């Protein structure tokens, strides 16, 4: 056993990374302005919450505190289970007792339980038996419960555990009270682990299994760009779905292989630019500050060139650009200068009659401005009179809200018929019709999820509040999945408070609030609504 959180099964195809020369790595880090290698094997790298990983983490956090169930996160090798396990361990408070282990092939019950006892600083013999270790761990869990501390064990690569070790771990969960504030265990393993766990058939220990799916093409693209951003890359996104698709297909869901492909492309992009002299994929060789300074200098030179080209007509530009300052200048001129200025304006007006109508209202020559001024002035004065027809149309605006006021009252019925239409379809179960009739902004409590309709029906039939339980069908990894829920609540807080009112078996299952809008989407997608 060891406490290294890195999944050993996720290290394949990384040997090429460690063997790569250091200088090309430094080159592409400098070229793209990176503070670190975004695709090196670092379990402490920033956590990517896409691909359902953030939602899974929140569910695990809730169940670790309020459930007495055995939690199992299952998925193919390399999909990122180890990173979720580490993030889960780091997400709790400092004073909680969190033990993160990585199982190794051939590890027996004595080794696993002994590692847990040493991590929790329990006093045991040098070579304690499995029974003594179990007794010490149960006593420790009871003390943690009395001190209101969380005692949690997370085991990565749990598929390496043998049947005896799995049985010993499950026995630690037997006999816990309904509050679930005892020892909690989360296993991260390959998908085949669920079959092994079902073989124990312990009725007093519920098993919650979660499937960690591989990243889709869109999620993989977002993931690679996220890694670049976390390494302080400030440029435009480098990775697109078109570029990532061949890497994604070759990776087959294994994130380390995706890292290798992206890292190799970064090295090749820098090498290609150095050999061909062409600009890289997007990044410029000059620093960003230098580029901005050069752009500003070019802009200044361009403005100087424009002003030099227009220096032959300074008076005309001053009248068109700054009419108010032009008038203030004419007030300070002497009569002789004013006369000469007027003469220049008249001569320019004769040479450019088309521009005369624009300049004469702003010029100081009343002799030529008066004949022209009445034409624009009435048009300016008529515009304030235009609101008079608008004032006449104000009753129409006031009546428009009255007409528009009908639309808000008609919109809710437009949604209700959709629900009524769904409920009128004969192939939709009655429970799903009830759920669809509830508001999407409300919440309910999920109690159970199973792959068998018969198992769900037996569970509901055995519950004392079976009249208050509802079930619906959805898809999980393309296969039917049946979920049991109860209650209708306005917020997550009221839903969590209602957990204390549930029967003991349901409280032990660790229910958690779910937004009805999410359930509506799953039901409609399955039913084709």
Automatic annotation (TrEMBL):
<keyword id="KW-1133">Transmembrane helix</keyword>
<feature type="domain" description="SPOR">
    <location>
        <begin position="437"/>
        <end position="515"/>
    </location>
</feature>
<feature type="compositionally biased region" description="Low complexity">
    <location>
        <begin position="346"/>
        <end position="372"/>
    </location>
</feature>
<dbReference type="InterPro" id="IPR052026">
    <property type="entry name" value="ExeA_AAA_ATPase_DNA-bind"/>
</dbReference>
<protein>
    <submittedName>
        <fullName>DamX protein</fullName>
    </submittedName>
</protein>
<dbReference type="InterPro" id="IPR007730">
    <property type="entry name" value="SPOR-like_dom"/>
</dbReference>
<keyword id="KW-0472">Membrane</keyword>
<feature type="region of interest" description="Disordered">
    <location>
        <begin position="312"/>
        <end position="427"/>
    </location>
</feature>
<feature type="transmembrane region" description="Helical">
    <location>
        <begin position="285"/>
        <end position="307"/>
    </location>
</feature>
<dbReference type="InterPro" id="IPR049945">
    <property type="entry name" value="AAA_22"/>
</dbReference>
<keyword id="KW-0812">Transmembrane</keyword>
<dbReference type="Pfam" id="PF13401">
    <property type="entry name" value="AAA_22"/>
</dbReference>
<dbReference type="InterPro" id="IPR036680">
    <property type="entry name" value="SPOR-like_sf"/>
</dbReference>
<dbReference type="Pfam" id="PF05036">
    <property type="entry name" value="SPOR"/>
</dbReference>
<feature type="compositionally biased region" description="Polar residues">
    <location>
        <begin position="328"/>
        <end position="342"/>
    </location>
</feature>
<feature type="compositionally biased region" description="Basic and acidic residues">
    <location>
        <begin position="313"/>
        <end position="327"/>
    </location>
</feature>
<feature type="region of interest" description="Disordered">
    <location>
        <begin position="1"/>
        <end position="25"/>
    </location>
</feature>
<dbReference type="GO" id="GO:0016887">
    <property type="term" value="F:ATP hydrolysis activity"/>
</dbReference>
<dbReference type="InterPro" id="IPR027417">
    <property type="entry name" value="P-loop_NTPase"/>
</dbReference>
<dbReference type="GO" id="GO:0042834">
    <property type="term" value="F:peptidoglycan binding"/>
</dbReference>
